[in-house]
Amino acid sequence: MSASRTERLLNLLLALLNTRVGLPRSVLREKVYHDSAENDVAFGRMFERDKVDLKQFGFEIETLTDPRHFGVDDPASTRYRIGKDSNRLPDVSLTPAECTVLLLAAQLWERAALGSAAANAVRKLQAAGGFTDVDLPAGVQPRIKPAGQAFDDVVAAMHGNHPVRFAYLAVSTGREEVREVEPWGLGSRFGQWYLVGFDRARGAKRLFRLSRMTSAVTVLPASSFEPPVGFNARAELDTLHELPVQRATLSVDKDRLLALRKRAVETAPVDSTRDRVMVEFRDPEVLAEELASYGPHVKVDGPAELRAAVVRRLQGALDFDGEPPVPVAFPEAARAQRARKRTSEDQLARMLQLVPFLVHHQGLHIQEVADHFGITRKALIDDLKILICSGLPEGYPDDLLDIQWENDHVYISEHLDLNRPVRFSEDEAAALLTGLAMLGDLPALAGVSEDEPGSALESVTIKLTGAAGQAGRLAGAVAGQSVEPEQSQAFAVITQAIRDGLQLHLKYLSRQRDELTERDVDPLRLYSLDNTWYFEAYCHSKAGIRNFRLDRVEIVEPNGLPASGTATAEQDFPARLFTPSDDDVLVVLHLTRQGLGLADDYYAERTAQLSDGGLLAEVRFGTAEWLPMFVSQHGGSVRILEPGALRDQTRAWLNVAVEQYDSPSDRAAG
After folding, report:
1. What are the CA-CA distances from residue 43 to residues 37, 77, 612 (Å)?
2. pLDDT digits (tens, 9 = 90+) for 274-302
C-alpha cells in the first residue's frame, strides 16, 4: 500500500459512511477511483481488494440491490454503504480503578506479539473518552515472556487461519519430526507455552510445547482452515497433567552453583573436586536449559533424557559457533531499537484512531499527540496532511475533514462521522481479555484500592467482553497463566517501601557471581516476566541501579532509613532487565530465526537483517563472564561474532563442557 492508496481507502470509507441510500459502482469509480483505475476491469479488482481491506479495519460494507432492475445481481444497480453504528466501538465508561487494572493487563504484552494490539486497543478507549489517565500502583509493571519468535509466528498464523510447519522433538520417540499443524490456540501451563492444534499428518488434535520446537515456525499462507466452533484454549490446557517428579543426579564442582545446591535433596562428595548433587524436577527441557548454562561446572549423570537434552544444547551452541562467520555490517551508524517496518495499513489504522482522539482532546500540542501514538512529529504531520485532503466525493469545503494546528496545537472541527473509534479487532480483544484473565490477584497485591480490587477486575472484564462482541473469538484461543508473584510477602514489603520512601536491607543470591551478598537498596519499581518478578533499586554498595529477582531474595526488610533519593525510576516502560553502564561489554551476536526475540529481550542497540531470516544484533552486557552461559543455554540460537577474544573464550568453555559427555551415546543424543 502506498500513501495514495491510503488516501483512496480513506476517501472510499468516508463516501460509504456518509450515504443513506448507498453509492453505485459507477459513482465510486468516477468520484473516488478516477485517478487510479484505467478501465472497468482494473477498477473492479481494485474495489474488491479495498472492500477486503476496509473489512479488516472493522468496517462491514453493505450491498444493496434494486429488484426493479433486471436481475438482483446486476452490478449496474448494486449500491454500497457502511452503517454508521455497525462498526463503532460501543461506549465503555471505566472507573479509575478499572483503568488501572486494564493498563496492567495491556502492558503485559509490551514486548510480545500482541503488544501493538494491546496498545491500539487502549488508544481506542482513550479516543472514545472513556479511559482515565492513571498511574500504575507503586511502579508495578507486569509483562509476559512468550516462547521466543515461535509465539509471534503462531499468533500471526492463528489470526489469519493459516497452518504452520515446524520441526519438533517428539516426547514419545525423542526424535525430531516435521509437523504441519492447524493452530487452534496457544496457552501457558506449568511455566511452558503450548500450541493446541490439528496435526494434519496424524489427523488428530495434538498439543505441542513451544520449547520443544527445534526449527523456526513457517506460516503457510497458501492454505487455510477453520478452527472448531467455540474452541477454548484454557479448557484444553486444563486437561494437561503436570509431569511427574523425577530426580536428577549431577556432578557439580566444589563450592560452585549455590542456587542449584539450595534445591538439592541430597549432596555427597565424589572426590576432591566434585560433589554428587540430587535435585528434583518435572520438565527435563526446563532443567536442561539451566544446566546447559552452567557448562563445564556440572555434568548430568542421569536420567538419560535430561542428559541428552543438555548435550543437545551444548553441542548445538558449539556447532553454530563453528559455522562460517557472516560479515558484520549495520545499515545505520546510529543506534536504534529493532522495530517492525511501518506500513500504510499501520498509517490508516492510526488515522482512524487519530480523528476521534483529536475530537475528544482538542488543543493538544502536536508533539504530545505524536508521543501518544508512538510516532515522530513528521509522521504525524504526514497523517494530518492526508486527513485534511480527504472528504466526500467532489464535496464542498464543508465536506472535508477540517483539522488545523495553530502554534503547534491541534484542533479538529469537522470529522465526517469518524468521531468514534472502530470496534476492537480480534487481536486487540484477545490482548486485553487474555491479559485481564492473567492478572489473578495481582491488582490486590499491587494496592489497587479505589474500588474493591476483585470487583474492578471482574467489572472491567465484563465491560470489555460486551464491547468486543464477535471480535472476542481470538481471546478464547489464547490462555496464559496468572502473573501474580509467588513471593507475595516480599512483593508486599517492596511495594510498601516504595510507597513510603524507605530503604531495604537484602540478603541476595547472585547467580552470576555465585555468592550470597548483603546490601542496602532504595527500591524503585517492580516488573515481571511471566510470574518471575524483579525489582529495580539503587544499590548503595554498588553505587548504581541494579535489578534483583524476587525468588533469589533470602531476606528483605526495612533497615529503618529513608530512601536516599540518589536515583529515581526511569520513565520508560518497561523497566530494563539490564541497566546499561560505562563498564558494559559491547558484543555483536548472530541470531537465528528462532533466536530473533533475544534482540528485543536484551535491548539490542543496533540490528541488521540477514538474508536467511536471521539477525545481527549489537548488545551491551554487564559482564563478559556471563556470555558463555548465555550462549550455551540457548543451544544454537545465538553465537558471538565480536569481540573475537570473547568468542574464543566461549568456544573453549563449550568444548570443555561437551568433552565431559564423551561416550558415543551422549554424542548421538546431541
Report:
1. 5, 17, 38
2. 999 999 998 888 899 999 999 999 999 99
Q: Which of 32, 104, 77, 69 is nearest to 441 (CA)?
A: 104
What pLDDT, in 10s, does the model give residues 514-545?
Answer: 788 899 999 998 888 777 899 889 999 888 88
Amino acid at 121: A
Report the C-alpha gap between 522 and 518 in whole angstroms. Answer: 14
How does strand 638-642 pair with strand 585-591?
antiparallel
The gap from C-alpha 192 to its chain's centroid, in whole angstroms, comes to: 15
Q: At what angle do helices 3-17 and 377-388 cross, to 10 degrees?
A: 50
Least Cα distance to 537 among 500, 582, 581, 567 occurs for: 567
- Identify any residues that bridge with 14 across adjacent strands, giving them in sequence order: none
> Could you give the CA distance from residue 57 to residue 31 in angstroms, rounded to a whole number?
22
In whole angstroms, give the CA distance from residue 423 to residue 419.
12
CA 105, CA 465: separation in Å to the nearest integer? Answer: 14
Please state the pTM of the whole predicted model. 0.73
- Asked if 254 and 275 touch (Cβ cutoff 8 Å), the reply is yes
> DSSP alpha helices (H): ranges in 542-601?
597-601
Let me know if 238 is exposed, middle or buried by CB neighbors in 10 A (0-12, 13-18, 19+).
exposed
Coil/strand/helix, residue 399: helix
Q: Give the cell for residue 474.
A: 481470538
- 417 in Cβ contact with 87 (< 8 Å): no
Site of grid cell 484500592: 449
H-helix or E-strand containing 311? helix 304-321
Distance CA 485, CA 469 (A): 32
